[in-house]
Amino acid sequence: QVQLQESGPGLVKPSETLSLICSVSGYSISSGYYWGWIRQPPGKGLEWIGNIDHGGGTHYNASLKSRLVISVDTSKNQFSLKLTSVTAADTAVYYCARAPDTSGWGYNYWGQGALVPVSS
Amino acid sequence: SYELTQPPSVSVSPGQTASITCSGHKLGDKYACWYQQKPGQSPVLVIYQDRKRPSGIPERFSGSNSGNTATLTISGTQAMDEADYYCQAWDSSTVVFGGGTKLTVL
Hints:
- The complex is a heterodimer of chains A (120) and B (106).
- In chain A, 0% of the residues lie in helices and 46% in strands.
- With 120 residues, chain A is mainly β.
- In chain A, the strands form two sheets. In chain A, strands 3, 4, 5, 8, 9 and 10 form a six-stranded antiparallel sheet that branches. Chain A has a four-stranded antiparallel sheet with strand order 1-2-7-6, with no helix packed on it.
- In chain B, the strands form two sheets. In chain B, strands 1, 3, 4, 7, 8 and 9 form a six-stranded mixed sheet that branches.
- With 106 residues, chain B is mostly beta strands.
């Protein structure tokens, strides 16, 4: 059974860097598929952040690209998110998820989500 | 940038058919998928490649996609189907979500 689990700090201060790790079990990231980050501000809809594949190839939301880095560590079976210069607008539940392809499938496995408040 | 538009809310009586639309420019030329999200839970994929159901999703969930509109249809809607529903499409290897539709079963 594939499982994803987000981990990271419970609170980030404005102007600092938000860092999250997604740990994957039940499937080896190096075997393939696409690994994504999606966020959801409180009471609002889903916003796609970006994807990475097992080889490290990335695609980012254009509105976040200048502040965003997604990377993969196949030795630990993890992928991570770094978002710099955060503001209160970055407060959200952050989900990691897996998609079999980048055309017809959606994200068929999701983590439980990690709430990251941005506040001083 | 590509955009997907959904109605904010849809209401349906138990046992009736609910239809939720998702509109985007030439969306029919892409694949659409749909997620169900209940309060406090992660989204669940209910339809992919326009009309396919992942394992474990009830047959009452179906999808279609043509022209500029994709549609999620829930037949014989049950109280447990009350949730937020999001459409999603891929646009040149990037992901676009619709704004979401709150389905109320009353």
